[in-house]
Each structure stands twice: as structure tokens, then as C-alpha cells.
Amino acid sequence: MFTMIKKVIQNIFFKSFTLKYPKEKANVSINFRGTIHVDQKKCIACKLCEINCPTGAIIVDPKKKYSVVDRDLCILCGLCAEVCPVNVIWFSNNCENAEKKRTEFAKQLPGPNPRPGKRS
Ligand code: SF4
Ligand code: SF4
Predict the structure, then answer these.
(1) pLDDT tens digit string along 62-83?
(2) Assuming Cys at both sites, which of 24, 46, 116, 118 could form a disulfide with 19, CB separation 3.0 to 4.6 Å?
(3) Region 18-35: what's the mean pLDDT?
(4) Which CATH class is domain 29-115?
(5) What does pTM read for this prediction?
(6) Average pLDDT in the 15-29 region?
(7) Strand pairing of 35-38 and 89-92?
(8) Rounded Cα gap, residues 106 and 119, in angstroms
(9) CA neighbor of 44 nearest in space, from 88, 91, 102, 93
(10) Whose CA is nearest to atom 8 of ligand 2?
(11) What average pLDDT does the segment 101-112 reach?
């Protein structure tokens, strides 16, 4: 009981542990995987990323030589970037990806629709 009262008093007089988001931004590590990026122009369509993706989020078109990430399925695990032989998949630490509409969310990663008819 005493410990709890002590904590309450501390929290009244000292700076809070939480941030007042969105006014205050978190200091995110540069290594944090917040957003996936794919440089389509350099993709050689080897399909290694597609084979290794645990959620089936990345689809490669060998004819057109590009890989597309379905943002609804990607869990930002980083496996695709690890296996890519030409290092065209990378992550930025931007973690503010929330959008009110799924169509706006999809626009964050330009490219063809990986599953035509399934994305709204
Ligand atoms: S980060 Fe993980 S889930 Fe997302 S596309 Fe790459 S392998 Fe798939
Ligand atoms: S692993 Fe890299 S080069 Fe191969 S298909 Fe995927 S993005 Fe393209």
C-alpha cells in the first residue's frame, strides 16, 4: 500500500512516463521496421522473397519483373529483405502508417495491386 501511494505521489510531481501523442513524437530507433519499401526497378524477379514470406504478403511477377507487397498481410518481419540477393527491399523507421481508409493505406506503397479485386 505504501509503495503504491509513493508511486502516485511521484507521478503527480514528476514528468510522466508516457508521451502526449500525437503532439509529442516517440524517439524511434533507426533500425525499427516501420514501413517496407521495394525498389521495383532493380528487382530481378528471383522469387526468393515470395518463397520466404511467412504470410504470403509479397507477390512476384516474373514476366514484368517486380515484387509487390500486400500491406494488409505484411507483418514487417524482414525475412524478404534478408533473402533478397540484390538488396532492393528495405525498411524505414516511419511507424505512423495509420489511415482512416484502406485505399489511402494502400497508396503508401505505390505499385500494382497484388491481388486485384481483393483490395478495396
Ligand atoms: S516483411 Fe515479412 S511479412 Fe512483410 S513482405 Fe517481407 S517477408 Fe513478408
Ligand atoms: S528477392 Fe529481391 S530480387 Fe528477388 S523477387 Fe524479391 S525483391 Fe525481387
Answers:
(1) 887 788 888 888 999 999 999 9
(2) 24
(3) 89
(4) alpha beta
(5) 0.77
(6) 86
(7) antiparallel
(8) 8
(9) 88
(10) 43
(11) 71
Give the pLDDT confidence score for residue 105 in this predicted structure. Answer: 75
CA dist 22 and 84 (Å) reads: 35
- 41-54 pLDDT, tens digit each: 899 999 999 999 99
CA 82–ligand 2 middle distance (angstroms): 10
> Ligand 1 atom 3: the closest Cα is on which residue?
74
Please identify which residue in the block is written with the cell numbers 528495405. Answer: 90
Residue list, ligand 2 pocket, CB within 6 Å: 38, 43-49, 60, 67, 83-84, 86, 88-89
Q: Which DSSP string corresponds to the chain?
A: -HHHHHHHHHHHHS--SS--TTTSPP---TT---EEEE-GGG-----HHHHH-TTS-EEEETTTTEEEE-TTT-----HHHHH-TT--EEEE-------SSHHHHHHTS-S--SSTTT--
